[in-house]
Design brief:
Length: 138
């Protein structure tokens, strides 16, 4: 009996594995940066710009705690991606989506970094959705 093939070459799977590693590294880096952003918000919230009349107004200290906690979870999820488990990819996609929204909501407080973080999380989502390991079924 013959085994079914997926039609993908070995170079495709190497490329897909590279994308997963890329997503893991970027998720770790972005998680550390969000962690430090959270510390900034907790320790000294006057670093952030106060935008009057913003629809989504938050206490910046609470916002700092939110970034700190999500940053820690993002670093842990990034390291879990190195194991190659499907659950870690699903967690990475979900976490990157949540952090994308969190950074969108914090645009008025720290606009330049929020835009950079949004771009990083979009790249993570793309890399985790496109790349597949040879063990995964389509």
């Amino acid at each position: 009996m013959t085994q079914p093939t997926t039609g993908h070459s070995k170079s495709y799977f190497a490329w897909a594995g590279g994308l997963t590693m890329f997503a893991g590294v970027v998720l770790i880096i972005a998680g550390f940066l969000d962690f430090f952003r959270g510390i900034m918000g907790i320790a000294n919230d006057d670093v952030f710009v106060a935008t009057p009349g913003y629809v989504f107004r938050f206490d910046l200290t609470a916002w700092g705690w939110l970034h700190l906690i999500f940053g820690i979870v993002a670093v842990a999820a990034g390291f879990a991606l190195f194991k190659g488990a499907l659950w870690s990819r699903i967690l990475g996609i979900a976490l990157a989506g949540v952090l994308l929204v969190v950074n969108f909501l914090s645009l008025p407080y720290y606009p330049l970094w929020s835009l950079v973080a949004i771009a990083l999380y979009i790249a993570i989502i793309w890399a985790l959705c496109v790349g597949r390991s040879p063990e995964e079924k389509i």
